[in-house]
Amino acid sequence: MRHPFLRLAVNGLCLGLVAVALLFSALAVWDAYGPGAPYYGRSTNRDKWSDPRPILLVVDGGVVLLVFGLRRLLRRMP
Fold first, then answer.
1. What average pLDDT score do residues 23-42 get?
2. For residue 31, what pLDDT is reported?
3. What is the rounded end-to-end Cα distance, in angstroms, of the chain?
4. Range of the domain at 56
5. Considering the domain boundaries, does residue 29 fall inside one?
């Protein structure tokens, strides 16, 4: 293990990326469905409501690919 600081920094970056993606997903779902009665956010402005799942799939998928790539890069380093 020749680069312990680099490994620690990349692991911290991966953890931070996952935490930010989790926060983004939670806030998007909270905003879409609202804190009121069940599905309150969808029923109040039905013409303006949009499903958050497609964008969440793209963002979370990108984070997973980025973290996987960084971890694989770390594994290949001597």
1. 77
2. 82
3. 7
4. 15-76
5. yes
